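Subgroup meeting minutes
Present: P.N., E.W., G.H.
Scribe: E.W.

1. P.N. recapped why we're keeping a running log of single-chain structure predictions: easier to compare across weeks, and new members can see raw inputs and outputs side by side.
2. G.H. added today's entry (75 aa).
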Amino acid sequence: MAHMRDRNMKFTSTEVNKLVQEWIYNLRMTEATSHISHVKQYETTFEKANICVEEKSKKVTDDDSNNYSTDDTDD
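Output recorded in log:
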């Protein structure tokens, strides 16, 4: 644990921003294209998942609305 703590580095958000900008600036076109393609694949996956969640959420809401009763009697 002490070894890990002694080597722990802390970066400010400004330093991280600078490092990211330098990394992006130095990307080759093939690397940039690959990263963008990868992000687009994840975007498509999340869009499909969002549609699925919205459909299931609507069904749950509809089921709850259909089963809701204002009658408080427990027969």
